[in-house]
Amino acid sequence: MNDPFAEPSDTRQAILGAAFRALCEHGYANVTIQRIGDEFDKSPSLVYHHYDGKDDLLIDLLGFLLDEFEASVADGAVADPSGADAAAAEEDAPEMAPEEAFERSAREQLDGYLTAAVDPASLDDAYAPDERFVTVMTELRSQAASDEAYRDHFDRSDRVFGEYLERLVREAAAEVAGGGAGVADDDASDASPDAVTASEVAATLQTFATGGMFRWATTNDEAWIAGSRAGIDRYLEAMLPLVETSASGE
User: Does residue 192 fall inside a structural domain?
Assistant: First the structure.
């Protein structure tokens, strides 16, 4: 994946870019403020001046990336074929990308999200998360088990990506409906008893992706990937036609 901090606009972004590069190179356990300073093209002492320690800096990095992602999808047009969206679709993923990243259907974006979570090595996209990025994000998320600051970040991250996925699921369901096969807005009051909410489907996909990232990053055997993807694809094929496409229905 491309460096999202290739052109920093201020000192903070330059430091965060140094942290990003050092983290991807060394991993969470081995990254240090000194190694981050080595990636910084100004005086390394500035890193110590702005941050109390490694975790303080890395949490700011996570927050910055999430802020960028949230701002880029704030207009709600996640499946606009004109390319109005501009963010990556990964849970805790490279949360910055150009508009071209969203010149796809909602279902294609969901497929990209799921593939990036369980098989990032298969993606040939400069703006998609690569293998090392998925690994370090998994390492950072694991810190939330014992560090409240990381837990607070990933609570917020899950909310942001959950809302994003709800919108994608609703758009994908509308695509499936096409001429009316799904539960459209006008039919919300007469919804099938089998109807499901977009939030339910999004929560399932998010849980699958988070678990998939951990399994991918912590095992060598990749035999599970194909079966897992086939299973979640069948789930989507079965659920999307049942999704209530009216936001008010949730």
Answer: yes
**Signed CA dihedral, 69, 133, 90, 92: sign only:** negative
Contacts of 192 (CB under 8 A, 6+ apart): 183, 242
Nearest C-alpha neighbor of 28 from the set 135, 130, 134, 136: 136
Which pair of structure tokens corresponds to residue 117? 């979570």
C-alpha 238/C-alpha 158 separation (Å) is 24
| Beta carbons within 10 angstroms of residue 47's beta carbon | 23
Check: CB of residue 72 under 8 Å from CB of residue 83. no
pTM exceeds 0.70 for this model: yes
Residue 116 Cα distances to 108, 122, 130, 218, 228, angstroms: 12, 8, 8, 15, 13
- Assign 183 to helix, strand or coil: strand
Instruction: Give the residue, 16 or 130, on which the prediction is more confident.
Output: 16
pLDDT grade for 87, boundaries at 50, 70 and 90? very low
Distance CA 178, CA 30 (A): 51
Instruction: Look at residue 1 in the predicted model and tell me its pLDDT.
Output: 66
Number of domains in the chain: 1
51: domain CATH number is 1.10.357.10
| Residue 184, pLDDT score | 44
The closest of 235, 227, 207, 209 to 118, measured between CA atoms, is: 209
Domain that holds residue 227: 11-249
**For residue 91, which of 214, 174, 199 has the smallest C-alpha distance?**
214
Q: What is the pLDDT of residues 121-152, one digit of tens each?
A: 888 766 667 788 889 999 999 999 999 999 99
